[in-house]
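check this one:
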Amino acid sequence: MTTAHGGSQSASVEASLTPDAAQTPQRVVYFLLLTVALDAMGLGLLIPVTPQLILKLTGEGLARAAIYGGWLTATFAIIQFFAGPLLGSISDHTGRRPVLLISLGAFGLSYVLMGYAPSLAWLFLAQMLTGLFGATPATAGAFLADITPPAGRTRVFGSMAAAFGTGFIIGPALGGMLVSYGLRVPFLTAAALSGVTVIYGALVLPESLPRSRRRGFAWRRANPWGAVSELRRRSRVVLLLLTAFLQRVSTSALPATWPYFSMQQYGWGSRQVGYSLAAFGVATVVNQVWLLRWMDRTIGPVRAAEFGLLMLALGYVGFAFGHGAWVAPVCIPLATMGFMAGPALASMLSVRVAGDAQGMLQGVLASINGVAAVLTPLIMPTLFSVFSSGNLGVRFPGAPYILSAALAVLGTLFVARGAAAHGPNRAL
């Protein structure tokens, strides 16, 4: 059913929760978190083996394979940019369950296509399919928003982000081990994980969005620009969406530049870089599970987002101006606190958007992630290269971190203004 939303018809999000949603078994939440973790694990499984597959399919050198790999990543991100709001709007119309299960099934099919791809063109086709149906975290987020009261959304979004991070930590290590049994084994394993999740979900996963809270599908809001315009019309969330974009770019800057930066600044090799990235991932998960929950209870999501962004900026400034490898263990925990701002912002956004638009909101957030995933690897490593070469007359490898710190500080200003733009528990 399509719901009208005028300014005089604002309703609290608590009222939009149905009794069935409020009484959803905890095992459903666990299933959604497991789904997100397995989805990330499947993606991570392919990281160590995709370069080898490209080399095999093209017969060209590693330098050219890296370019193809970049194009594959950009293809995924661009397709996801357009597909996120589309699938989000579809889930607002048909419900979360079918979109989630079909997306998982499509992911499994894309892994099979990649594993048996006879040419590079097939690899791009599989990546397009992955981007088109890459709505698992977004749909899971809308599902969790449906079944979680507003006061608990920061914690549950933090758990979802931590589940994704955990899967992405385990996936590459597992992929590196499985490839020793054959180049196709990691792809088939990822496909099997998706298939098992689909079967289990079909058996245990209920629908979270009752028909009374669904709305008609419209193409005008099933694209990134139309969806943002719709959200702007229905609720004052533009500043918070802009903050989410700045947060995503800032947090993505470190993994995009860290291997090059640490090798030049500290003289590290691949092993030290790998260990530090593992520490980076573990610290991120710890912050999102435990520290974010404590901060949400004590100071609330607005202050948690501001604190996370400020600590991110402080950690980046430390990287930029600090000298010696001792900087890494001090500043990595600070920088990873910036990831707490993501779930806090998602929670703030979800309680300002009506129940029948949660899918659209999560789709817009997926589009934001897609844009950041394209722009950050293009901008930040280039900035590092320009300022570390000495061709400008000044050598300052920390330039990407200063820019990212500035974006994070700007984000704190937008958080405060965006939070004040509308009451904390109202949805238009």
Observations:
- Confidence is low (pLDDT under 50) at residues 1-22, 424-428.
- The longest strand covers residues 11-12.
- Residues 14-216 form a domain with the Growth Hormone; Chain: A; fold (CATH 1.20.1250.20).
- Residues 62-94 form the longest helix (33 residues).
